[in-house]
Amino acid sequence: MMLLGERHKGKSRWLSVLTLVAFSIFALNPAPSYAQNKAYSFGHYFRETNQAVGGGFWEYWVERGQLAQQGYPISQEFVERSDTNGKDYLVQYFERAVFEWHPETPKTPVLLSLLGNFLYKQKYPNGAPGQKPNTTAGSVLFKETGKRLGGKFLQYWNTHGGLPQQGFPISDEFQEKSPTDGKTYTVQYFERAVFEYHPEQKDPNYQVLLSLLGSFHYAAKYQSNLKGKPGDTDGDSVLDDANGNGTSDVEDDQCPWSPENFNKIFDADGCPDTLQTLVIFAAEDINSFWVDKFKQENAEYAAPEQFIAYNEPIDTPCGPALLNNAFYCSLDHSIYYHYDFLIDQLNSDGDFAPVTILAHEWGHLVQGNLGFLQGQYLTIQTELQADCFAGAWALHAGEMGYLEEGDLDEGANSLFKAGDDIDFPWFKPGAHGQPEERIDAFVMGLENGPDACLEFTP
Predict the structure, then answer these.
(1) Rounded Cα distance, 374 and 443, in Å
(2) pLDDT above 90 coverage of the chain, percent
(3) Per-residue model confidence as pLDDT tens digits over 195-253
C-alpha cells in the first residue's frame, strides 16, 4: 500500500486536514486526552496457537504474569462443569492454568481452577513418595495443609501471585519425571500449579518454571479424539456424523477441520473458531492499521479505552447501549457492541459482516481522534465517512491476504441493510444514509484508501 502522501504529490490531504484541525478546531475546543492502556482493551489474537483472549480473562492475563506465568491460550472460552464444586463456569484453558469466570465475586471475577489439586490426587492418591520438607532458613509452614515452602520455591511463590495465583502447597518437595521432556526435576505441588526447579538455567529468573498443567488437563479431558481420527477430523469432540445416519444434520459437526476454515481468518463458509476469536483478530488488525496511518503522518492516535460486548442494555456515558447495535462513544472513547447482534450478522451474512460493522465504528473512533466529532451528534456525513474508513481498512485486509471470495459482498451487505428509508431526513439524529450512498462510500475507501474519505469531513 502506498503511503498517504504518495497518492497526492507534496503534502497529503490527510496531513493538511490534521494541520487545519490543529490550528482551528483544536485551538477553539481542545480534543480530550485519552490515557493509553498498557495493553489494548480488546484483547489479543495469538498466532502461536490460533486462539484469542479478551475481556476479563485478557486483563487478568496481562496483570498476572502473562506468558511466563499463564502460557499461551490453548482453547476458546466455553462453559465447563467444575471438578471442584460441580457448578458450571465460563472457562478458558492456557498452557499453565485454567481461568474461571466468577460473576458472583465481582472484586475477583477471575479465579484459577485447582489443577494442582486435581492432578496430584489423580497421580498420587496416597501422596507422592519421597517427599522432603524444605527446612532452610526462612522457610514457612502452612498450617492449612501441613506443608513447608522455602528456598527458590518460596521466593517464586511470593513474587508471582502468592495464594490467589498459586494456592497453598499441597505437597513437600520431591523428585518427579517431567512428562514434557522426560527429565527428573525437584517439584512441589500447589493447589493451582506445580513448581519445577531447573538449576541448569543460568538466569536465576528461569530456575523455577511451571509445569504445563493446563495443557496436560486439556489433552486428557478433551483431546482423546485427535486430528485425523476417523469420525472426528478436527478433534473438537463433535462427531462429523453425530447421529450416524450418513447425512449432514444439525447435530453433526457443522465446521469440521479443513485448510479453508483452519486459517481462522474471515472464512467464506462461516466457520471461524468463535465470534470472540473473529472479533479480537479484526479489532487488533483494524487498530494496527490506524496506528500505522497516524504514525505515517506524525499524528497522535488513541486506541479505544474500552471494547465492551454486552447482551443486555447497559448504561454508558453516551446513554443506554441498545440491543441490535454497535457504537462508538466519544465521551469515553470506547466501542460497544451487542454480542448476539454480531452473531446474527455472522450467521445471516457471513464472517466479514460483523467485521465491517466494527470497522465502521472504528471509523468513528478515527473521527474522534481527528476532532471531527466535537460538539456534534452523528449525521449522515459522519456516518458515510465512517463507511469510507471501513472500506479503506478493507483495502488493507485484501492486501494482507485476509479476504476470501464473497467477503466484500458480506461487508457491503451489512451496510446496505442498515441504510435509511428514502424519506429519512438527512440531519435527523441516527441517520446513516441511503443504502446506495453507504455502499458508494465504502467502495470509495476500498478503491482509494483513507485520503478519499476526507471529502466527507464535517
Answers:
(1) 27
(2) 45
(3) 999 999 888 888 999 999 998 888 888 764 344 445 655 555 556 666 667 665 556 55
SS3 sequence of 351-399: CHHHHHHHHHHHHHHHHHHHCCCCCCCCCHHHHHHHHHHHHHHHHHHHH
Residue 154 grid coordinates: 518460596
Are the beta carbons of 323 and 237 closer than 8 angstroms? no
CA distances from 98 to 31, 48, 72, 182 (A): 42, 18, 11, 24
Nearest to 365 by CA among 306, 325, 408: 306
∠117-120-122 over CA atoms, to 5°?
A: 105
In the three-class reduction of DSSP (H, G, I as helix; E, B as strand; rest coil), residue 125 is classed as coil
Q: How buried is 448 (Cβ within 10 angstroms: 0-12 exposed, 13-18 middle, 19+ buried)?
A: middle
Burial of 60 (0-12, 13-18, 19+ CB in 10 A): buried
CA 432 to chain centre: 29
Complete DSSP assignment for 34-102: PPPPSS-TT-EEETTTTEEE-HHHHHHHHHTTHHHHH--B-S--EEEE-TTTS-EEEEEEBSS-EEEE-
Radius of gyration (C-alpha) of the chain in whole angstroms: 26
Strand partners, 73: 94
How many Cα atoms occupy the beta-carbon half-sphere of 1 within 13 Å? 22
Distance CA 373, CA 327 (A): 14
Whether residue 74 contacts residue 57, with contact meaning beta carbons closer than 8 Å, is answered with no
Grid cell in block for residue 129:
513418595
Q: What is the pTM of this model?
A: 0.72
Integer Cα distance of 96 and 447 in angstroms: 46
84-118 pLDDT, tens digit per residue, is 888 999 999 999 999 999 989 888 899 999 999 99
DSSP 308: E
Return the exposure string of 19-53: e unless at least 16 CB atoms fall within 10 Å of the residue's CB, then b. eebeeebeeeeebeebeeeeebbbbbbeeeebbbb
Rounding to the nearest 10 degrees, give the CA dihedral for residues 423, 428, 429, 433.
50
Q: Helix, strand, or coil here: 410?
A: helix
Question: Looking at residue 106, what is its pLDDT?
Answer: 86
